[in-house]
Q: What sequence folds into this?
């Protein structure tokens, strides 16, 4: 009975979320275009690169006219939205290829990096955080918290460089960068996996403190909750109390945290991709920003916004599924 | 006398968190004082290039060695920390003002204004901060102001949410009702009754944001989008020093990095203590 | 719950680990593995935006995938390539005729014809095509193919170094049938006539090329080339140390770390790539000849070469590289700083030291701003070095790092660290940089330098086909620049490359400013081999 009603509620939530998502995405894309219009960067000069030095002003003006970048902003925006609705994301002026093909060739690697790192962070932080909370104040708890605070203070690229220095250069266990061995002719999954060990671990480590500290605090808190204390009072063994009661209560807010923390994870991925020279969306977005490449910037921003909104929706649904007390049509 | 002093010290150590707090206070005070007083204590030119003294190892003359251009790393690190902390503090303050205003408006007016503002918050929250920051800096051209703007504009969300939810929960409290029924104006209720409750949380959120803002500056500098590269900032120095790491001159990136870690770590420990005294609901919202 | 000093200790341990690693120089295990032993892996920072020569890829030849009508040998002298012999120039210098080599095939098996050459050059001239190359070919009026083996170029005016412009790679016309050249798939999947055929390109990662077994100039000595694109200097150095590359371009200071390592060698390749300070005439301080001349002798070029370039460079005194036959030796000054001469120059011109040490004349302080592009750490360091040297003679310089778009509107008033240079012909860059006709036009002559002597010399060098007359003209040009000091030339760079000892057949030649896939030390990679 409750299952059916819950499912119906889920439909409402999805509909409502979608109603919200469209204006959010529209506002985001317009914001990007407005900011871009305020930018003094000349895309034609960026395009010319070092050749701008020997390129005449007429030459550059002709290129700008070919691109239509001097058209009024609403015209450019309307043209872009029109193409977008027809499935054409436009032409990337910094990459010299269609935006769709930039996204197609790169988004997968970024998703793989972020997804794997997220999975690693979740598993590790639940395990470590619970352990620490169970023996709060013990040496493990103190050490974990100390390390978490320390890691939080270290820039992710600094950790990345240290990892390269130790595991790639000094020990020679893992490759220092790239996606496949440089002489490889195809993308062999085992090869890619070996190349992703360091970047994924570094990204996971740099993001772990938030999650570990949260799990630890939440579990520690819920161990003091009434129903947990009651379970204890009933004489249930500590392990049952911990995993059966305290952890379940604590993990619910944790799901929301995952959703809200995703943008931060993507930011970390940009830096990790740079350090390990991975061909993901990160490096290309920096390039696009410097080249005032609106179609690509708008597309990457919208794509990440879509991913985050979807993740938020999923966590909402998971939250509701996990906790019958939460009413979805709330 | 020592008999009296010793138990007191032991007791202090036993009290949860006090040793860490003491260390944190000492480290933070030392580092910040050195950074702030650097121009007075060591009135030397931190930007003085001397190409005949490049990449010298630490010695009595140059406590932390010299960098690629013969500048003193120790002195430059302190100046760099000044800049980085300044950027972090100003950015956090600006973010707090933006977030505080948005949150106060949403929480006190309510209704569609609240819904619309929270929609804006959701929109910005759905965008990766670093990507948005990169975009803002690129559009405004890398400079001190642009870096501060990019951090502030991407980090006001948590303060907005905190202020809003505090106000919403306070609105239903008896003393507020009493004040309103007593004929107090909305502005008066806000400033006299609500603000004193909200301000401590706002202050905590702002302080928590400082290390994060410093980290953001470092990341932007690493991507070449930060402060002007000849300016001493921790981010620029680690960036410059990276190259030296491979050629053996580790001090040029390690020393500023350690200084940054020491300062932000101490700051984080202190604010962590502060946060631990608050109730868990607020704690969850303080996750940046 | 006490934290104790634990976190500090963790940081210290990490720092210690880094220390050990940084200090340790033991050879590391190769993670790259030998793989296909016949394939060479080279690494570079710069990645082309496109692989279409029409859109500015490998314009000066050595593009690995394409051939031009002419090519350059190890001494940068022109040799025939797709042209059977060097093209002939008519007596009035306005008609250039090239006869094509017979039996040359594109990688797809189709034969090269004169129509392909005509198509390539017409595409560059077509306003609808986004090519920045058009500015370099503004002397070209039209191209025609009277028969399938002959191409005739008609020029608007006689242009002595025109043959130097014919190294541009030739593309097959039929590959573009019905396509917009700006967006053609060809730009990412090119077909040429060169020693290597295109296999794949993963932007941001690598370009994979396979040997062209039917190359007209003999099949390559190796089975293929992989060009790895690693923008970050440090990452490239780390991956070179991990043994992933056979050759890599590295910043001089990073390259020097390989000099003592077994199995590696470092090549310092001379270039025409100079750096200098452009001093605008529109600024009252830098517009004063005394300030310009004083700065010119006050800068310590030798210290910049040693300290900033890690020894990979040489002092520069003018825009024609010392390796060029057109270089005028008499303009060279002292490599070190001459503070006494600078002081005397300033004193004589009435710039007297003020109370704060900064010189003053007519109530104006000797102070100006030097701009540099913020992303370029070499130019940043040179700007800081000039600042330090200027301070010693009482001139205050404020360095300012900006993006190019922020620099552009300020070039008329503020000094700028500039750099460029090609070894091929002295006309190429200098004509536009120092002619008064281009004063104030974008990057061409931003400081608005004007000299009738310089103008006449540059024009004579362009109009005259006679080598002796050209040499005389460029000697006059260089001497006039040295007298007027519109720029303080600082250094010529050497591009530094690290190669594995196992690689043989390497013949470095003088390189231009622009070098990535094309025109780097691997310009003749098709003759390289690797011992296993």
A:
């Amino acid at each position: 009975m409750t299952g059916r009603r819950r499912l119906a509620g889920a439909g409402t939530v999805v509909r409502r979320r979608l109603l919200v998502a469209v204006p959010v995405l529209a506002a985001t894309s317009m914001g990007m275009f407005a900011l871009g219009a305020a930018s003094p960067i000349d895309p034609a000069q960026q395009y010319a690169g070092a050749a701008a030095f020997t390129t005449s002003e007429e030459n550059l003006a002709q290129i700008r006219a070919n691109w239509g970048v001097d058209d009024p902003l609403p015209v450019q925006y309307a043209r872009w939205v029109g193409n977008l609705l027809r499935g054409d994301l436009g032409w990337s002026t910094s990459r010299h290829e269609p935006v769709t093909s930039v996204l197609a060739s790169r988004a997968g690697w970024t998703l793989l990096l972020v997804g794997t790192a997220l999975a690693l962070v979740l598993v590790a932080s639940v395990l470590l955080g619970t352990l620490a909370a169970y023996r709060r104040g013990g040496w493990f708890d103190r050490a974990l918290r100390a390390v978490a605070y320390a890691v939080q203070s270290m820039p992710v690229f600094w950790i990345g460089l240290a990892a390269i220095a130790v595991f790639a250069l000094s020990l020679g266990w893992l490759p220092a960068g790239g996606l496949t061995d440089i002489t490889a002719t195809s993308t062999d999954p085992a090869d890619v996996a070996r190349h992703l060990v360091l970047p994924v671990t570094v990204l996971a480590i740099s993001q772990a403190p938030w999650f570990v500290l949260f799990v630890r605090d939440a579990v520690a808190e819920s161990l003091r909750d009434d129903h947990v204390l009651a379970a204890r009072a009933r004489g249930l063994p500590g392990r049952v109390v911990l995993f059966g009661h305290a952890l379940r209560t604590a993990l619910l807010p944790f799901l929301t945290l995952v959703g809200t923390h995703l943008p931060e994870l993507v930011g970390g991925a940009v830096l990790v991709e740079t350090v390990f020279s991975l061909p993901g969306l990160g490096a290309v977005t920096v390039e696009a920003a410097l080249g005032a490449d609106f179609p690509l910037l708008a597309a990457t921003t919208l794509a990440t916004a879509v991913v985050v909104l979807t993740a938020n929706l999923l966590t909402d649904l998971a939250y509701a599924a996990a906790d019958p007390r939460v009413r979805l049509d709330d | 006398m020592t008999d009296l002093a010793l138990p007191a010290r032991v007791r202090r150590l036993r009290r949860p968190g006090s040793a860490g707090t003491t260390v944190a206070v000492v480290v933070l005070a030392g580092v910040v004082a050195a950074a702030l007083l650097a121009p007075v204590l060591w009135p030397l030119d931190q930007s003085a290039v001397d190409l005949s003294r490049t990449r010298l190892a630490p010695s009595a003359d140059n406590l932390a060695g010299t960098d690629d251009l013969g500048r003193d790393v120790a002195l430059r690190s302190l100046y760099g920390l000044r800049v980085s902390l300044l950027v972090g503090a100003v950015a956090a303050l600006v973010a707090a003002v933006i977030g505080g205003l948005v949150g106060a408006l949403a929480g006190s007016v309510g209704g569609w204004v609240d819904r619309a503002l929270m929609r804006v918050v959701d929109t910005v929250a759905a965008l990766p901060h670093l990507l948005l920051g990169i975009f803002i800096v690129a559009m405004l051209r890398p400079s001190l102001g642009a870096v501060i703007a990019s951090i502030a504009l991407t980090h006001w969300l948590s303060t907005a949410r905190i202020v809003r939810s505090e106000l919403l929960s306070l609105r239903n409290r008896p003393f507020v009702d009493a004040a309103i029924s007593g004929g107090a104006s909305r502005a008066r209720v806000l400033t006299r009754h609500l603000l004193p409750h909200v301000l401590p949380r706002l202050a905590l959120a702002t302080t928590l944001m400082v290390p994060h803002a410093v980290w953001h500056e470092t990341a932007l500098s690493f991507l070449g989008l930060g402060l002007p590269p000849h300016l001493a900032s921790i981010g620029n120095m680690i960036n410059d020093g990276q190259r030296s790491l491979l050629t053996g001159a580790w001090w040029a990136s390690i020393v500023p990095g350690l200084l940054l870690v020491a300062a932000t770590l101490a700051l984080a420990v202190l604010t962590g203590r502060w946060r631990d005294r608050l109730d868990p609901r607020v704690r969850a919202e303080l996750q940046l | 719950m006490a934290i104790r000093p634990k976190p500090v200790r963790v940081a210290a341990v990490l720092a210690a680990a880094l220390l050990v690693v940084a200090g340790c120089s033991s050879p590391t295990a190769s993670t790259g593995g030998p793989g296909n032993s016949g394939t060479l892996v080279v690494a570079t920072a710069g990645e082309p935006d496109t692989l279409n020569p029409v859109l500015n890829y490998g314009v000066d030849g050595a593009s690995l995938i394409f051939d031009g009508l002419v090519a350059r040998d190890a001494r940068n002298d022109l040799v025939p390539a797709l042209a059977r012999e060097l093209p002939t120039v008519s007596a009035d210098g306005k008609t250039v005729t090239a006869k094509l080599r017979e039996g040359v095939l594109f990688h797809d098996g189709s034969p090269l014809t004169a129509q392909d050459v005509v198509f390539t050059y017409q595409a560059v001239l077509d306003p609808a095509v986004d090519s920045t190359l058009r500015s370099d070919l503004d002397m070209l009026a039209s191209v025609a193919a009277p028969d399938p083996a002959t191409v005739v170029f008609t020029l608007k005016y006689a242009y002595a170094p025109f043959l130097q412009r014919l190294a541009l790679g030739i593309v097959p016309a039929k590959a573009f049938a019905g396509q917009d050249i700006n967006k053609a798939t060809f730009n990412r999947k090119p077909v040429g006539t060169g020693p290597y055929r295109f296999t794949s390109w993963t932007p941001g990662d690598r370009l994979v090329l396979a040997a062209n077994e039917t190359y007209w100039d003999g099949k390559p000595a190796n089975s293929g080339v992989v060009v790895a694109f690693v923008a970050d200097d440090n990452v490239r150095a780390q991956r070179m140390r991990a043994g992933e590359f056979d050759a890599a371009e590295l910043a001089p200071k990073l390259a020097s770390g390989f000099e003592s390592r077994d199995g590696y060698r470092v090549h310092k390749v001379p270039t025409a790539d100079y750096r200098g300070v452009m001093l605008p005439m529109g600024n009252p301080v830098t517009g004063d000849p005394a300030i310009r001349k004083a700065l010119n002798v006050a800068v310590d070029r030798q210290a910049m070469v040693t300290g900033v370039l890690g020894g990979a460079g040489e002092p520069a005194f003018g825009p024609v590289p010392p390796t060029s036959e057109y270089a005028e030796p008499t303009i060279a000054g002292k490599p070190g700083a001459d503070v006494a001469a600078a002081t005397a120059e300033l004193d004589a011109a009435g710039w007297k030291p003020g109370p704060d040490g900064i010189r003053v004349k007519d109530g104006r302080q000797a102070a100006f701003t030097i701009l540099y592009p913020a992303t370029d750490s070499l130019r940043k360091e040179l700007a800081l070095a000039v600042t330090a040297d200027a301070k010693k003679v009482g001139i205050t310089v404020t360095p300012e790092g900006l993006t190019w778009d922020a620099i552009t509107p300020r070039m008329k008033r503020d000094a700028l660290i500039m750099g460029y240079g090609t070894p091929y012909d002295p006309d190429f860059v200098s004509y536009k940089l120092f002619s008064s006709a281009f004063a104030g036009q974008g990057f061409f002559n931003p400081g608005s330098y004007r000299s009738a002597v310089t103008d006449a010399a540059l024009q004579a060098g362009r109009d005259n086909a006679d080598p002796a007359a050209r040499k005389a003209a460029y000697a006059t040009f260089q001497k006039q620049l040295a007298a007027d000091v519109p720029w303080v030339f600082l250094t010529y760079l050497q591009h530094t490359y690290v190669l594995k000892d196992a690689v043989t057949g390497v013949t470095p030649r003088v390189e231009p400013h622009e070098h990535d896939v094309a025109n780097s030390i691997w310009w003749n990679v098709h003759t390289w081999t690797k011992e296993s």
In short: The longest strand of chain C covers residues 264-278.
